[in-house]
Amino acid sequence: MGYANGVRPRIWRTWKWYAMKTLQPRRHWVAILVVLAVLVTCAAATSGGNPTDNAAGDGAGDMGTIIETAESAGQFGTLLAALDAAGLAGELDSGGPYTVFAPTDDAFAAIPSETLDALLADPEGDLTTILTYHVVAGEYLAEDLAALASIDTLAGVPLTITVEGDTVNVDGAQVIAADIMASNGVIHVIDAVMVPEGVGLPAAGEATEEPVEEVTEEVTEEPVEEVTEEPVEEVTEEVTEEPVEEVTEEVTEEPVEEVTEEVTEEPVEEVTEEVTEEPVEEVTEEPVVAPPVEEEMPVEEEPNVVDCAAAEGNFTTLVTLLELTGLNETLSDPDLNVTVFAPTDDAFAMLPGPVVDLLVNNTAARGLLEQVLLYHVVNGTYTAADLGGVSNLTTLQNETLVINVTDGNVTVNHANVTAADIECSNGIIHVIDGVLTPSVVPTMTITEIAATEGNFTTLSTALNLTGLNATLNEPGPFTVFAPTDDAFAALPEGALDELVNDTPALGNVLLYHVVAGWYLAANFENVTTLQTVQGANLTFNSTDGNLTVNGANVTVADIHAINGEIHVIDAVLLPPENETELAPPENETPVNESEMAI
Fold first, then answer.
1. Were 497 and a residue from 129, 369, 411, 591 both cysteine, which residue would form a disulfide, CB within 3.0 to 4.6 Å?
2. Is 474 left (phi over 0), alpha (psi -120 to 50) or beta?
């Protein structure tokens, strides 16, 4: 949702300052995410806690579901597509607990493409049987599997488990990475797709025998019969009747030898050569020289904008994000005619880490990520020369880019065009050194938003009194349920005065409004409790698009900051130990409101 009171986010320069001064330049974000994912998984496996109930306390709250964890890993694209086609992704995203034996993309690549296409075309048939053969109800770690000989799957067919030294094999597939923990189960990575008994997949080479048999029959039967019958009989008769009779008296040996040599050598050789060479060459040349595969091979075409970006080598992050949102398919349309301002990997690496985590790891933020990417694409083809004649362009995200050309240098929203006019089949690419940010992208910290928005005066003052304003200015990420000024005013008489006079108690109440991690409103469709930074739990209810926290209504959701998320609530949340303590004491004069500076 938008920002209240018409406050607009600051320009990109604020974001860039934050990245450079506070966070320091980062390595490639993909490497950061891989390390973070491993650390979070290890922490979760060690603690053994419930990731939903302990999000802030021990780090487990950042753990994704089985589907989210598989998406983050980056090596299960085919498996995720198959689960989605079979309608199983939803169950593995919300149900459980489950144990999933997950084949990698390389494992699926070992299946012939025609077979895989046939399975995906009939998802309710063998595909569902194969996929459920990889899923077990309940959570089984590697050490649990080592103690079992078999285990029942959701397909109704048991898996055979064998252990050889430190290697665990499941139905012949080797577990190459074990105990990847998710919020609703565990993933074991395997190196092959397992096929239950009764489901037959055709072998890759079955169709290669028929043409060979056909050719062999034609060559060995028909030509040989023709040669051995007609020519030999004809020559024998002519030679043995006429010449032998004439020469019998005078020369009985020489002429016979002569005739025999002439007949047996020349005619036979002549005929044999003609028959064995010409027909064989004819038969073997046809399938080799012009096989069906070569005739059907497509003519090589110029790559589209996505293929161009992938081939350049310095747009790995951009291509990955396009794949996450499915925009890679949209921008591969041959009928498109677009201009793409493409940020390099170094440009994405300058983004604040929490923002990258939000856009890449939080599936609820896919719409936000899509808007960011579409903000870099313009309808129509504009070369560098064409850009000199325009001052602004409307993006596919429907916001405007400002174009400036000075002394031949082109800037787009203050990002420099470092390389121009990469021509592709359906558009053109210009390389830029910064990420372009539409208005929906955060540019301020939680503390800055609380200080500049008009309805958080009391909250902002309380944060300053307790020193928590500095904490909520750090990278985080944090999710804050922010009471308005009216919410603080609705506290029992004297309660606010008592909190202001007891800074530790005030800090305790404020921390009860903060959760570690980044949670958008859509995340609470599957989350019912979270542990706060204060230590006690909050209870959530999301019904028909209305979200409540401990009974307080979320009146404005999803105010993005560069270090987290703000949800506006209409009541102050009190930790269990403060609910009765904040009643105004008898015979005590409350603090004068003018002295509170709140």
1. 591
2. beta
